[in-house]
């Protein structure tokens, strides 16, 4: 299948084809003794993921574990569907996200407020997963991949209060979710993901520092793909956060409303990203979908309002 890439170490990147786009959302299959899927993609992507796993020899009763870095719909929207397709799989998530996978009604209601009519096209609906099949992680946890290989979970809020990073003991791969931002492999651009309501600058920077301290060999971005230049990439992640926060602070202190703040920040950050040059319109569209300036600036504004003395 043309949406599967072997990354070595029995790790396979699966393009989940969110809303029909390619190169936006990745799921990863660790094909060990106890096969594990990291990130499901959206609900509408679930059949794509199921077929990819089947082509790699993982049938309905073969998948041992499904792990999500956090419960946003582009990462975990397919959990209920994948759990139904693979009835033997345990579903692993941070404890702050577990109840939303069992009962997605509140999560879907808030997503509807944010995305409106786009919700169905982009994400579909998160189906509930039986509570008995969900394992809630604390600040650290371990997923057994078989043969002594493990996936260790490390709590990394900042992007979202239910976010974890995951490191593979065999490969040194670190699944960064959205905590290190959104990476576009076509252009090498990296941009922060700071949506409301959970964004917090210090927490986000602490998460990036934790990732560096784990000593990963490679970063596997949910958006999108593997990066081997670990230190420089994590330094860039932190720098991007500071740039967006500094600019949004300026707009905030000048009393700008959200629309004007977004326009100002978008204009002042434009030259940082090759994807926003005129010859890469599809890349620009991907950035706006995954790390849109309105969402990023709104998240930082929300944090600034909360942080006021």
Automatic annotation (TrEMBL):
Residues 24-223 form the Metallo-beta-lactamase domain. CDD domains: ST1585-like_MBL-fold (cd07726). SUPFAM superfamilies: Metallo-hydrolase/oxidoreductase (SSF56281). GO terms for molecular function: hydrolase activity. Transmembrane segments: none annotated. Keywords: Hydrolase. Coiled coil: none annotated. It holds the Pfam family Lactamase_B. It comes from the Bacteria. This is Glyoxylase-like metal-dependent hydrolase (Beta-lactamase superfamily II). The lineage of its organism: Bacteria, Bacillati, Actinomycetota, Actinomycetes, Streptosporangiales.
């Amino acid at each position: 299948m043309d949406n599967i890439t072997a990354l070595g170490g029995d790790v396979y990147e699966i393009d989940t084809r969110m809303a029909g786009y390619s190169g936006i959302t990745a799921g990863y299959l660790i094909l060990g003794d106890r096969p594990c899927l990291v990130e499901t993609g959206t609900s509408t992507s679930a059949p794509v993921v199921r077929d990819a796993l089947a082509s790699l020899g993982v049938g309905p009763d073969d998948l041992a574990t499904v792990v999500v870095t956090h419960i946003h719909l582009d990462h975990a929207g397919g959990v209920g569907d994948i759990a139904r397709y693979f009835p033997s799989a345990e579903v692993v998530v941070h404890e702050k996200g577990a109840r939303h996978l069992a009962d997605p009604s509140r999560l879907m209601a808030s997503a509807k407020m944010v995305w409106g009519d786009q919700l169905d096209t982009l994400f579909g609906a998160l189906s509930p997963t039986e509570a008995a099949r969900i394992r809630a992680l604390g600040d650290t946890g371990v997923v057994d991949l078989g043969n002594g290989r493990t996936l260790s979970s490390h709590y990394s809020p900042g992007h979202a209060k239910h976010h974890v990073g995951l490191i593979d003991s065999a490969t040194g791969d670190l699944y960064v979710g959205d905590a290190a931002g959104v990476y576009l492999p076509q252009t090498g651009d990296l941009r922060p993901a700071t949506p409301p309501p959970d964004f917090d600058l210090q927490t986000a920077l602490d998460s990036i520092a934790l990732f560096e301290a784990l000593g990963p060999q490679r970063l596997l971005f949910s958006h999108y793909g593997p990066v081997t230049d670990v230190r420089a990439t994590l330094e860039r992640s932190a720098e991007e956060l500071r740039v967006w926060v500094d600019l949004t602070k300026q707009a905030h202190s000048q009393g700008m409303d959200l629309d004007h703040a977004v326009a100002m920040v978008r204009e002042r950050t434009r030259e940082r990203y090759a994807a926003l040059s005129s010859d890469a319109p599809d890349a620009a569209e991907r950035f706006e979908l995954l790390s849109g300036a309105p969402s990023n600036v709104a998240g930082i504004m929300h944090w600034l309002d909360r942080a006021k003395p």
